[in-house]
Amino acid sequence: MTQTGKAKPSITLWQYRMGEIRRYRQLYAMIAPYFLAFSAFTVIPVLVSIFYSFTQFNVLQPAKFVGMDNYIRLFLDDPVFLTAIRNTLIMAVIIGPVGYIMSFLMAWLLNELPPKLRTLLTVIFYAPSISGNAYVVFRQLFSGDAYGFVNAQLLSMGLIAKPILWLADQKYMMLIVILVSLWMSLGVGFLSFIAGLQGVDRSQYEAAEVDGIKNRWQELWYITLPNMGPQLMFGAVMSVTNALAVADVTVALTGFPSPSYATHTIINHLNDYGIIRMEMGYASAIAVLLFIAMISINRFVQKALRKVGT
Amino acid sequence: MAKAEKEKLTRNQRKIARIRRKAERAQRKGKPRTRFGKALTKGRSNRTVRGSIALLINLFLFALLMVFPVVFLVSNAFKPINELFIFPPKLFVINPTLDNFTDLFDLLSNSLVPFTRYLFNTLLIVLLGSIGHILLSSMAAFPLAKFRFPGAKTLSNIVTLSLMFTAAVTAVPNYIIMSRLGLVDTYWAIILPAFSMSLGLFLMKNFMEQVPDALVDAAQIDGATYFTMLWRIVMPAVKPAWITLFIVSFQTLWGNTAGNFIYTESMKPLPAMLSQIAGSGVARAGVVAATSLIMFIVPVVVFTVSQSNVLETMSTSGIKE
C-alpha cells in the first residue's frame, strides 16, 4: 500500500480496446470482405515481393535466400536496368508535370464553356485514357514506310527525302512514346479537376472582382487554386503513378524489347524477368525499388503542392 | 485677337479632344460592348473579350490535336482495303464501307471458339467484377466514412497510400498467390482482384462523407442495424458513386486480356481474341481497324452516358490532409 496516491483504473487499456472492438463488431464484419480481398491482392503481394527480393526463386524450386544479391546485381551487373531507370525518369519528368498541368489548364478552360460543349470536350479529352489500347492507331500514324501518315505528309510536302523510321530510330522513339503518353494523360485526375472547378463558390469570384483582382490569371492563383487543394493532391497522385508506369505503350509501339532498349522502362524490365524469364526473386527486387520510388516521389510532390496558393 | 492665336487655341482643343478620345478607347479596350462579348467574359469587369477569345482558340487547337488520332482510327475502320494502302494516306475515308466489319464477323464465326463465347466471358468478368466491387467497396466505405472506431483511420490511410503505386508492381506475387489459391485458369483470377481496387473504395468513402450525419443518426436512434442504414439510407443517396465505381471497374476489366492467368481458349475474354487478330499483320489491316474501333467505342459510350454521375462523384475525390 505504498502508492495510495494513484487511483487504480477500473479497466486496463487493453480491456477498453477489446470492449470497443466488441461494440463495433458489426462494423468490422462489414469492412471485412473488402479488406480480406485487399490484403490478399494488394498488401500481401507487397510484403511477398519484399520477401522474395532477397531470394532466388523460379516458382518450380523452393526459394533460396541470397541476401542483397539481387539488388547488387541490379545496380552493378545489369546495364539494361540502368538504361530502364534512365528512360523511365526521362519519361516521368516530362509526362508527369506536363500531363498534370495540361489536365488542369484544359479543365480550367472547359469550365468557362456552356454545359453541352463542356460535356462534348470532356468526352473527347478523356476518351484516350479509357479506350483500352486505342494507342495502337499511332502505329499507323508513325509507320516507318512511306504509307505511314506522318511520313507521307512530310514526303509530299518535301520536308524529308525518305521515310523516317519513327518507331525504330532511337532519335524519335522516346519522343513518340512521350507524345502518346501525354495524349492519354487526361485521365481520372482531369475529371477530378473539372468536378472540383465546378464546386468553387461563385461569390468568391464576385468578391474578388470588387477587391481588385485584375485578370483571370490572378483569379486563378489567388482564388481557384487555393480552393482546389484536395483535387490538386489527388490529380498529382494519379499523374505521378501514371508517369512512372509507362509500359504497354512502349511494347505496342516500339516492340519488346525495343531496339537498343531505347524505350525500355522499369516495368518492361520487371515483366521481362517476372513473366518471361521467371526469375521471380530478381523481378521482385525491381518491383520493390519501383514501389519505393513511387511512394517517395508521391510524398515529395504532395509536400511541394501544399505550398500552392498559400 | 489675332487670327493665328485663335487657330492655335482650336488646334489645342482638338488635340485635347483627341487625347481624351484615345484615353477613353484605351479604357474601353477589351471590355465587352456587345451581348456576345458579355457572355464571353461572364459580365466580369476584370476579364477581356480578347483574352477569352485567345483562350478559346487555344482550347480549340488542343481539342483538334487530341481528336486527330481518334478521327484517324474511326475513319480507318470504314476504309475499303485499297484506301488503307493508298499513297499518300488520307485522313478521311472517301468511299465508306462496312466490309471490315463483315470480314471481322466472318473471321470470328469461323474461329474454333465462337465469338459469342468470348463475348460471354468478357461480360461475365465485367459484370461479376463490377457488382462485387460495388458491394464490397460500399460495405467497407460506409463504416470508414461515418463512424470512428479503432483502426478506421489507419485503414483509410493504407487505401490512400495504395493509390500511389500501380498494379504492375504486384503482378509477380499476385501470380504466385493465385497459383497457391488454385485460381489460375479460372475467371476468379481476374474477378477477385477487381473487388478490392482501391480507387473505388476511395471514391465511395469520400462521397459517403457528404451524406448528412443527421440521416444516419436518425436511423440509429430508430434502432436500425448498420446494414439497414447502409441499404435503406446511404446507398440510395450515393447513386452517382456506385455508377462511377461501375465505370471504373468496367474500364479496367473491359480491356483485360487475362494474358497471364487464363490459358484455356474457350475461357479467354474478348480482348485476348481481338489482340490475336490485331497481331495477324498487314493482310488483315481492315479487320484490325474494325477491331480497334469496337474496343475503343464501347468504354467511350459507357462513359458518355454516365458522365454527369461520374463528375458528381469526382467532386469529392480530393485527398484531404
List keywords for this structure.
heterodimer; A: 310 residues; MetI-like fold; two-stranded antiparallel sheet; 15 helices; 2 strands; B: 321 residues; mainly alpha
How would you summarize this macromolecular structure in one to three sentences?
The complex is a heterodimer of chains A (310) and B (321). Chain A has 15 helices and two strands. Chain A is an all-alpha fold and 310 residues long.
Q: Which residues of chain B form runs of ≥5 with pLDDT under 50?
A: none
**Spatial gap, N to C terminus of chain A:** 58 Å
- In what range is the share of β-strand residues of chain A? under 5%
CATH superfamily of the largest domain in chain A: MetI-like
SS field, number of helical segments of chain B: 15
Order of helices and strands of chain B: HHHHHHHHHHHHHHH
CATH hierarchy class name of the largest domain in chain A: Mainly Alpha
Provide the CATH topology of the largest domain in chain A.
Answer: MetI-like fold
Strand content of chain B: under 5%
Provide the domain count of chain A: 2
3D structure, described in words:
The complex is a heterodimer of chains A (310) and B (321). Chain A has 310 residues and is an all-alpha fold. Chain A has 2 domains: 1-52, no CATH class; 69-309, MetI-like (MetI-like fold), CATH 1.10.3720.10. Chain A is 69% helix and 1% strand. Chain A has 15 helices and 2 strands. Chain A has helices at 13-23, 25-52, 69-76, 79-110, 115-130, 137-141, 149-156, 170-183, 188-198, 202-210, 216-227, 229-244, 248-254, 266-276, 280-305, and strands at 55-56, 64-65. By secondary structure, chain B is mainly alpha-helical. Chain B is built from 15 helices and no strands. In chain B, helix 5 packs across helix 15, helix 6 (115-146) crosses helix 10 (198-208) and helix 13 (239-254) packs antiparallel against helix 15 (285-314). The model of chain B has no long low-confidence stretch (mean pLDDT 84).
